[in-house]
Amino acid sequence: MELGIKRFFSFKSNDKLGILIALVVFFIVASILSPRFSNIQNLLNILRQNAMLGIVAIGMSVVILGGGVDLSVGAVVALCGLIAGYLKDFPFILIFSVVMSTGIIIGSINGFLIAKRRLEPFIVTLSMQIVIRGVCLFITGGGYIARVNTFAWLGSGRVGLISIPAIILICMYIVFHIIMTKTVFGRNIYAVGGNLNAAKLSGIKTDRIIVARHAICCGLCALAALINVSRLSTAEPNAAFGLESAAIACALVGGTSFLGGRGSISGTFIGLLIFAMLSNIFNLLGLKAAEQEIIKGAIIIIAVLWSQRQKAGKV
Question: Which of 155, 171, 182, 243 could form a cystine bridge with 231, CB 3.0-4.6 A?
Fold first, then answer.
């Protein structure tokens, strides 16, 4: 069993080295294409602007590594943002508690339906996405909540040159890197994602792991929602539309196998940087939105093909 878990947990250094080399090469090319790209303020802004995506990508990685997927993340961010907006006049500790609880509860429901009712993660989370988007439109009437600035420090505050969202983003990656590499829970996530039946036979409480992975994912969505609303000072029902595909892309570009059991949180961070810098250089070069989406979609397809080849042992 110990050897099996190590196999599920392993992420070859060569895999990560290849992604890191791609990041360095991309950075050099982007700097040549636009001198403004390598400006320190621009690089710090990239982290600040992509804090929401980066935090959600952590949760998505945990779910994918555990053998699932969560398509409800964008809707959860929108709903949690609206809740924060409606509670904007209350103390931040209350806002934080209610919003985080909402995210964790939604994730737990997803996990329960998948683990206990044996429903497919794709179907459960897609259905949850549709329900939550409908709830968001119903409670707002299609409108938005403005002047959500009672905790604006969370989105616009700084410690020296580094913004608070960037600090939170980096801290979350460090924390979850440790969880996934140094704890029994992390090893169990890999085991469940690598082979669910083998994990059951080895005594792992697989149902608990499945519920936990989705609770963590949606809990991180709630945190991302707080950062997003505080940064924009607005909460609206269509927020984070399409966020799920971007979060999946960060994980896949970072070397996480869509089939589960292979990848790393640090790899996802590299994938986030590649994805974020790609969007930034596109904007600096003046590429149209349609052109950007075509290129990003192609990158996701390439990442999925690479993931499949790794799983088949051809790379």
Answer: 155
Does the pLDDT of residue 300 top 90, yes or no? Answer: no
Which residues on adjacent β-strands are paired with residue 145? 235
Q: How far apart are CA 76 and CA 237, in angstroms?
A: 10
Q: Per residue in 222-271, pLDDT tens? A: 999 999 999 999 999 999 999 999 999 999 989 898 889 999 999 999 99
**Any bridge partners for residue 78, and if so which?**
none
Domain coordinates in residue numbering, the chain: 2-311
Q: How many angstroms separate the CA atoms of 238 and 79, rounded?
A: 9
List C-alpha distances in Å: 147 to 160, 233, 235, 296.
Answer: 26, 5, 9, 33
- C-alpha 237: how far from chain center: 19
Average of per-residue pLDDT across 41-70: 97
Domain 2-311 is found in CATH 1.10.3470: yes
> The pTM is what?
0.92
